[in-house]
Structure formats: C-alpha cells, structure tokens
C-alpha cells in the first residue's frame, strides 16, 4: 500500500499445513501476514484477491494509504519509478533510451502516462478484446458454463495493477454479486470493474513479461516472471546509480512489441 505518512508491507499467505506454527511466528514478529481458510492454489487466486479487498475495506486502510497495488510474488517492482509515478511525474528513464521509448509509442513524457487522478483510478497493463480459450490443455482454459462469452472485458494484467483506495470497496461490493471464475485478473479488474462502472487505464511500463536485459528494468514500473535470485539482482541493479546503460539495441524493439495489447 502507498500514500500514507509511513510505509508498510503486508503479504497475504494462505496455508493450512504443517507450516502454520512458523506462519504464526512470522505474523507475530513482523505483522505482515494475512491468513484465510482455503488452499493457496492457482485456481484460488481469485478468492485470495477478493479476500484482500475485504481485508482492506474492513480495516479502513484508506485512512493510512491512498493507493493499493496488487502484484504476483514473481513480479519485480521498481519502487523509485513507482513512487515517482504516484507523485505525478513521468517515469524517469535513463537518458540513453528516453528518445527511443518516446519515438516507439511508449511516450513516457506524455501527460497520458502521468497519474492524473486519485479517485476512481485503476491502472496497469491492459488487455483488450482477449478471446476466451476453449482448449482444455491451456493453463487459461475457461469452461463455457463458467463464462459463456467469446471475449473477456478489458482487464489489467494480474502481474501488477494499481488502484486508488476508493476503488477497493466498489470492487468488493461488485464481487459479492458476480459469479467467480478462477482467472483472477479477468475477474477483479475486468468483470467486477465493469459491474462497478470503473474505467481501467493502460500504462505500458507495467510489464507483464520478463526481459533478459537488465537495462530495461531501470525504465519499468514492474516486471513479471522473476525468480527470487533475479529479484535481488534487479534491485541491486536499478539502485546502482553509477552503472551507465548502453544505447538501446535490438532488445528494446522486442520490449516495444509488447505494447500491442489489442487496445489501440
């Protein structure tokens, strides 16, 4: 959560096995765990996120924080860039690549990529006109009885999305009247947001994929699919102000292509 006079991080872990004692000790020592009574599995991600919304709403966290950001545990967040964005600035990309990003439609200096609202605001990497997959072998297979449509509503990638605090109770209220599906990002930021009449905003620097090139991490807000060791390396790299990145190479073209999210 962000926007309060002090900063804190609380993680949601749902586990009912032999690690319960260690979880309780962790919670008592650091006050950083929320636990609910269901199995922590991929198919229960939607329940986990809805329970997070409930927890925030019931504890009136809006009194201490202005924004709530949900990220996967394998998502790296460039905190300096995130804070700069939350303070109303454009993301501070390093000079060698600034022109490249702007000329290839990232438009990092554009007012469109500034935080221009503190209420009714949801932002992340938005997917539009995403088809419902009927292949039972796919990780994202959706049975017709759960979602009898051909296309999902616009939604934000679950790897990392941000919302103003007033959005939380609106999403939670919508969730109480919306049948669950196991695709968490589609459900929360697509179906529930639609029911609550909330507009989602696309920002290209909330990245849903991973880059092999560390210099791209300096210019992003979030990057997905990192291992634990990658997290440490990425943090050390983006906070090392003495390292100078080379001029952009072909790899930036591959990053640029990921902006083709079907929303244009």
UniProtKB/TrEMBL annotation:
<keyword id="KW-0735">Signal-anchor</keyword>
<keyword id="KW-0333">Golgi apparatus</keyword>
<keyword id="KW-0812">Transmembrane</keyword>
<dbReference type="GO" id="GO:0000139">
    <property type="term" value="C:Golgi membrane"/>
</dbReference>
<keyword id="KW-0472">Membrane</keyword>
<protein>
    <recommendedName>
        <fullName>Hexosyltransferase</fullName>
        <ecNumber>2.4.1.-</ecNumber>
    </recommendedName>
</protein>
<dbReference type="Pfam" id="PF01762">
    <property type="entry name" value="Galactosyl_T"/>
</dbReference>
<comment type="similarity">
    <text>Belongs to the glycosyltransferase 31 family.</text>
</comment>
<keyword id="KW-1133">Transmembrane helix</keyword>
<dbReference type="GO" id="GO:0006493">
    <property type="term" value="P:protein O-linked glycosylation"/>
</dbReference>
<dbReference type="GO" id="GO:0016758">
    <property type="term" value="F:hexosyltransferase activity"/>
</dbReference>
<dbReference type="InterPro" id="IPR002659">
    <property type="entry name" value="Glyco_trans_31"/>
</dbReference>
<keyword id="KW-0328">Glycosyltransferase</keyword>
<keyword id="KW-0808">Transferase</keyword>
């Amino acid at each position: 959560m962000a926007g309060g006079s002090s900063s804190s991080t609380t993680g949601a872990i749902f586990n009912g096995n032999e690690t319960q004692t260690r979880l309780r000790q962790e919670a008592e020592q650091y006050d950083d765990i929320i636990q609910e009574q269901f199995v922590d599995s991929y198919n229960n991600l939607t329940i986990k996120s809805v329970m997070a919304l409930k927890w925030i709403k019931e504890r009136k966290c809006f009194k201490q924080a202005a924004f709530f950001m949900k990220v996967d545990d394998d998502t790296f967040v460039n905190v300096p860039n995130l804070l700069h964005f939350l303070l109303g600035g454009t993301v501070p990309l390093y000079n060698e690549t600034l022109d490249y990003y702007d000329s290839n439609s990232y438009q990092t200096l554009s007012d469109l990529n500034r935080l221009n609202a503190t209420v009714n605001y949801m932002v992340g990497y938005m997917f539009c006109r995403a088809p419902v997959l009927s292949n039972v072998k796919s990780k994202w297979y959706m049975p017709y009885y759960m979602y009898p449509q051909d296309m999902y509503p616009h939604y934000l990638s679950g790897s990392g999305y941000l919302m103003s605090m007033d959005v939380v109770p609106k999403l939670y209220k919508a969730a109480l009247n919306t049948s669950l599906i196991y695709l968490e990002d589609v459900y929360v930021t697509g179906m529930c947001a639609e029911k609550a009449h909330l507009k989602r905003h696309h920002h290209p620097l909330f990245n849903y994929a991973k880059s092999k090139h560390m210099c791209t991490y300096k210019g992003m807000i979030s990057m997905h699919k990192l291992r634990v060791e990658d997290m440490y390396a990425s943090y050390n790299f983006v906070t090392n102000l003495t390292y100078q990145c080379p001029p952009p190479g072909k790899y930036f073209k591959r990053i640029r292509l990921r902006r083709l999210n079907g929303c244009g």
